[in-house]
Specification:
The protein contains 7 helices and 11 strands. It is an alpha+beta fold. The radius of gyration is 25 Å and the shape is elongated.
Length: about 220
């Protein structure tokens, strides 16, 4: 029986070759960015939302963002004074760990730091986020919800029932306490009640340029 053209096997050697090529391309892109842009900032993202980060990239079209592949980015910058692509980049390379990204831009330092310090987007919290305030729900009718959602509310732990077709909270309910970590169920409840408790934010931690070297930024 002839083999299906769709049942092709990708060999390990080919996979490794593709991976190596991608790494080499990323190294080249990072080093080209060093040559093209005057300023390099290290950043981290608080309460990551991919759609929000995409929006930020759109607002900074003339700049370059690199996030992920830390080992490859560190290699591109150079891990030692002997390997560094430009003087002082080995010190930057040491900071590329965890969820740290690189922002290359020709915008001046004051404008860039001020823009990101003032930028933030309110978001709904997710499991693991810390509650920013204490939320308690009073017993009584919840007319904002249709009767069809009542079983879902109960599945989240809310003491609800249908009273004459109206979703009703049968007793007072403590959703969260300020400073406490949110469970997935409590985060969903806050979202249902339209109570955002997170803020997407890109936080700049360090700046490097060929002229000034590496500088830690004020938090």
């Amino acid at each position: 029986m002839p083999k299906s053209k769709r049942s092709k096997v990708l060999t390990l050697a080919r996979t490794e070759k593709v991976g190596f090529k991608a790494k080499e391309e990323l190294i080249t892109e990072v080093q080209e960015a060093v040559d093209e842009y005057a300023n390099l900032f290290l950043f981290s993202v608080k309460d990551m939302r991919n759609a929000r980060l995409k929006d930020v990239r759109g607002k900074w079209k003339r700049s370059r963002f690199f996030l992920g592949k830390n080992k490859v980015m560190a290699k591109a910058l150079g891990k030692t004074p002997e390997e560094e692509y430009r003087a002082g980049l080995a010190n930057v390379s040491k900071l590329v760990s965890g969820t740290v990204g690189l922002l290359f831009t020709n915008q001046d330092v004051e404008y860039t730091t001020e823009w990101f310090a003032n930028f933030g987007e309110v978001e709904y919290a997710r499991a693991g986020n810390v509650a920013t305030e204490t939320v308690k729900l009073d017993k009584g009718p919840l007319p904002q919800f249709s009767h069809a959602i009542e079983p879902h509310l109960r599945s989240l732990g809310l003491p609800t029932s249908l009273q004459r077709g109206v979703v009703t909270l049968d007793k007072d309910f403590d959703v969260c306490t300020e400073g406490a970590s949110l469970t997935a169920e409590r985060a969903r409840i806050l979202k249902l009640f339209e109570m955002p408790m997170a803020t997407f934010k890109v936080q700049l931690s360090h700046h490097w340029s060929a002229d000034t070297g590496l500088t830690a930024l004020d938090a």
